[in-house]
């Protein structure tokens, strides 16, 4: 079926014609144990302008469809035409979705560990129409009531808790209370023979679910997950003066799922976040951020929803900002800002300097175009901009404005004007200049320090002229032995290209944005550059060291610093950094600089330098597990691998990494791989086995991995593991043909939906065996032949690789 993407003007016309009263969705899952069929009957009650005509979205196979009792004509391009509407209408559409393996919206997964079947739905941005008939646009919100018939051994979970369950012929029927008014991408149905753990906390009934073969990791992590969930619900309820309005809050970990989804009251996760090994502190930090991001969506997205996808940032940027805000204030992860500085914020800085840069808020002609902006501009840049706004108006004022916003607009749809209006009223400030500069203008500012006749000057250059209005901190640091002591710090309001910085004494380093209050790339003066490259470990705090490393990394990606300089700076910081949530990503950056950004001639020496740092970290007990992973990744032969095996003990994750490195070095020990797969209780251990073969420099192994990723389409979460292992340094000869095969695959990478499109485009993108001419050509091919979601992801990823290629030539 050819399917049309909804355009903004069509959505506006339809919203002007009708208002949805309710959805009653009757779902039958009983055929899914043995086959693919997902059946649904959607009963939609809505009011409309009498005599008007419109359409309802439906991309499943229609078995019957009636409007006010009269049969409807066949579906065309994913739409059922609705003519001569009455004032009050009832639409009943029975559908079956048979493509539940690689299709959109509905997925049937079979656990390879025990052959149990699990079913999940996931609908953002407009994939509910693949499950049942609906008016699939965000501003036609309505209550959803689900009745689900499932096999007798299955548990069904949906948005509303405490369902009525009764035995029926062929299984059990689960009847859920109607939800509050939700946009069509917020409802969810998940089902299967889950393991379930529940607790009471803060007046809420909290639930966790996973497939049976992951009962061990779920039980291990349950207490921490419940603690984080309760902390988040309390924090957001307090800050927004609106507690989460439903007693139940469930989180379901699912096989073959891609990422996480903020369904109201029932968040769904890819179950690879339940680490098969004991999670590191940095992995818990990442888990915490995602948990709080999805939770923040209960307010930013579910309770109040953007009217159209041009305000997607109202959902995603706010949730990303809010998750870090909550993590720092309400959980044990007080160094979230430093962690973000050396992780996602680096991606945003790079994206905002390349051809994929776009305003945080921009026109979105169709939903297909919306898929292309789930990116580093909308997420980490948007989050940083909102952090700047809170700093700009003050936290108390910000909270007051947000509380008023939720109180006024609960269960409705809003635009940017509504949000800005609430914050202007709370702050008494005109925020239109801020809005125009930060939300409607693309590009990142470059802030620097220079010495001039008038004294110390903060320079500021916008990507397209004037810089953004912002408040930025500048810290002054002076050498005292091995330490860089802070001898002064000021906040500077930036309104022009040059601002005199007063009240700062002479110093060896002036660190711009030392307190991470704005979104801007920074540069030191000449003396400061020497300090950042040679002795950043002297800086006094984890945050200032993270800010310094973000500057060095941006210099690397701009070809203003070599991979050797970046590795030197990063390893110097790692001599003193003891905060695991920052040390682990810094170590990852050092390894990335050595293996992806360095010329081939320099790579072995830089890898050895990173390995030496990792050995020191193991000895010191800092990020030990991450450091051992790096030692596995940089091993040069059997003696190095034996050292890691000895340190690993019974850690199966590290043993897999040893086999991966051995394969990369040219020794695929098939017997050892099979023995470890047989020993590993992880139901997805086959992915690690495939990863070992993907690492190797042998043509048959590369072909096997490529076929699995591109033709057989292994699950998204598996592709994210195997894909990066495919592109290894030093294997250019065997990898060269796959650069062209990537180009050939571009028109198909979006098949299956937005998440596969994003994941495959990114994880399969060549990291080696390409040059600048190839990058230019792949961009041209994508622009001409690929879906918008692929074009967006490719543009961002290709810019990073293009800069790698250029920096390798330094």
Task: Provide structural commentary.
The protein has 810 residues and is an alpha+beta fold. 43% of the residues lie in helices and 21% in strands. It is built from 27 helices and 28 strands. Helix 15 runs antiparallel to helix 16, helix 22 runs antiparallel to helix 23 and helix 23 runs parallel beside helix 25. The chain is globular, with a radius of gyration of 27 Å. The protein starts with 7 loop residues before the first helix and ends with a helix.
In short:
One of its GO terms (cellular component) is extracellular space. The protein has 810 residues and is an alpha+beta fold. The chain has four domains: 1-191, Immunoglobulin-like (Sandwich), CATH 2.60.40; 194-444, Neutral Protease Domain 2 (Neutral Protease, domain 2, Orthogonal Bundle), CATH 1.10.390; 447-518; 697-810.
Key features of this structure:
810 residues; alpha+beta; Immunoglobulin-like; Neutral Protease, domain 2; 4 domains; 8-stranded mixed sheet; 5-stranded mixed sheet; 28 strands; globular; Aminopeptidase_N-like_N
**Molecular shape:** globular
Spatial strand sequence of the major β-sheet = 5-4-7-2-1-10-13-12
Proportion of residues in helical segments: 40-55%
What is the strand tally?
Answer: 28
Q: Which architecture of the largest domain per CATH?
A: Orthogonal Bundle
State the domain count: 4
Uncertain segments are: none
Rg to the nearest angstrom?
27 Å
CATH hierarchy, class of the largest domain: Mainly Alpha
Helix/strand class: alpha+beta
């Amino acid at each position: 079926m050819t399917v049309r993407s909804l355009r903004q003007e069509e959505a506006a016309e339809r919203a002007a014609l009708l208002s949805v009263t309710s959805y009653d969705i009757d779902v039958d899952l009983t055929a899914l144990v043995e086959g693919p069929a997902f059946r649904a009957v959607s009963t939609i009650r809505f009011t409309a302008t009498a005599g008007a005509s419109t359409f309802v979205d439906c991309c499943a196979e229609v078995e019957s469809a009636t409007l006010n009792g009269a049969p409807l004509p066949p579906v065309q391009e994913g739409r059922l035409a609705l003519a001569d509407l009455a004032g009050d209408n009832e639409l009943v559409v029975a559908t079956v979705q048979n493509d539940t393996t690689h299709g959109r919206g509905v997925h049937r997964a079979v656990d390879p560990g025990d052959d149990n079947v699990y079913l999940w739905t996931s609908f953002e941005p407009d994939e509910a129409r693949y499950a049942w008939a609906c008016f699939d646009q965000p501003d036609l919100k309505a209550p959803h009531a689900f009745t689900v018939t499932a096999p007798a051994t299955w548990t069904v979970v949906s948005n509303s808790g405490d369902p009525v369950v009764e035995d029926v012929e062929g299984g059990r029927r689960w009847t859920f209370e109607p939800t509050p008014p939700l946009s069509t991408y917020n409802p969810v149905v998940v089902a299967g023979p889950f393991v379930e753990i529940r607790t009471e906390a803060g007046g809420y009934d909290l639930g966790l679910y996973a497939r049976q073969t992951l009962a061990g990791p779920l039980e291990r992590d349950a207490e921490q997950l419940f603690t984080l969930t309760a902390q988040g619900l309390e924090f957001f309820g307090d800050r927004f003066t609106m507690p989460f309005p439903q007693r139940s809050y469930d989180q379901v970990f699912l096989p073959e799922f891609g990422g996480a989804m903020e369904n109201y009251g029932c968040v769904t996760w890819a179950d690879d976040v339940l680490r098969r090994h004991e999670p590191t502190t940095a992995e818990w930090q990442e888990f915490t951020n995602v948990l709080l991001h999805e939770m923040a969506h209960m307010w930013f997205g579910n309770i109040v929803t953007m009217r159209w996808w041009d305000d997607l940032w109202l959902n995603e940027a706010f949730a990303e900002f809010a998750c870090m805000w909550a993590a720092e204030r309400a959980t044990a992860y007080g160094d979230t800002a430093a962690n973000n500085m050396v992780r996602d914020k680096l991606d945003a800085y790079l994206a905002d300097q390349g051809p994929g840069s776009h305003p945080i808020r921009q026109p979105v002609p169709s939903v297909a175009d919306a898929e292309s902006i789930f990116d580093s501009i909308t997420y980490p840049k948007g989050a940083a901009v909102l952090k700047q706004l809170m700093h700009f108006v003050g936290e108390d004022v910000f909270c007051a404005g947000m509380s008023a916003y939720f109180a006024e607009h609960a269960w409705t749809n809003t635009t940017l004007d509504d949000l800005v209006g609430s914050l202007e009223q709370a702050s008494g400030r005109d925020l239109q200049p801020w809005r125009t500069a930060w939300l409607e203008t693309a590009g990142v500012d470059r802030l620097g320090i220079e010495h001039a006749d008038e004294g110390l000057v903060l320079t500021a250059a916008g990507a397209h002229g004037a810089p953004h209005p912002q408040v930025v901190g500048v810290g002054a640091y002076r050498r005292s032995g091995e330490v860089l002591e802070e001898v002064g710090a000021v906040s500077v309001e930036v309104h022009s290209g040059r601002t005199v910085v007063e009240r700062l004494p002479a110093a060896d380093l002036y660190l711009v944005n030392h307190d991470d209050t704005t979104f801007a790339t920074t540069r030191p003066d000449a003396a400061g550059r020497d300090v950042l490259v040679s002795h950043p470990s002297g800086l006094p705090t984890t945050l200032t060291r993270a800010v310094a490393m973000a500057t060095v990394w941006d210099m690397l990606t701009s070809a203003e610093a070599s991979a050797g300089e970046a590795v030197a700076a990063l390893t110097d910081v790692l001599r003193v950094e003891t905060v695991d949530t920052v040390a682990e990503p810094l170590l990852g950056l050092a390894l990335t600089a050595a293996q992806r950004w360095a010329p081939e001639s320099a790579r072995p020496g830089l890898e050895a330098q990173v390995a030496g740092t990792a050995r020191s970290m193991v000895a010191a007990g800092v990020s030990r597990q991450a450091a051992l992973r790096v030692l596995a990744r940089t091993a040069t032969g059997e003696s190095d691998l034996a050292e890691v095996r000895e340190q690993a003990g019974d850690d199966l994750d590290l043993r897999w990494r040893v086999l991966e490195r051995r394969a990369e070095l040219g020794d695929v020990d098939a017997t050892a791989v099979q023995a470890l797969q047989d020993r590993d209780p992880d139901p997805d251990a086959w992915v690690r086995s495939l990863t070992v073969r993907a690492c190797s420099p042998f043509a048959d192994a590369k072909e096997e991995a490529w076929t699995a990723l591109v033709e057989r389409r292994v699950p998204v979460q598996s592709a994210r593991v195997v894909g990066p292992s495919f592109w290894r340094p030093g294997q250019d000869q065997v990898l060269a043909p796959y650069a062209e095969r990537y180009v050939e695959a571009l028109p198909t990478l979006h098949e299956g939906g937005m998440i596969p499109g994003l994941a495959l485009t990114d994880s399969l993108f060549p990291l080696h065996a390409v040059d600048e001419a190839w990058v230019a050509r792949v961009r041209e091919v994508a622009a001409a032949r690929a879906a918008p979601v692929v074009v967006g992801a490719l543009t961002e990823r290709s810019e990073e690789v293009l800069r790698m290629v250029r920096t390798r030539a330094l």
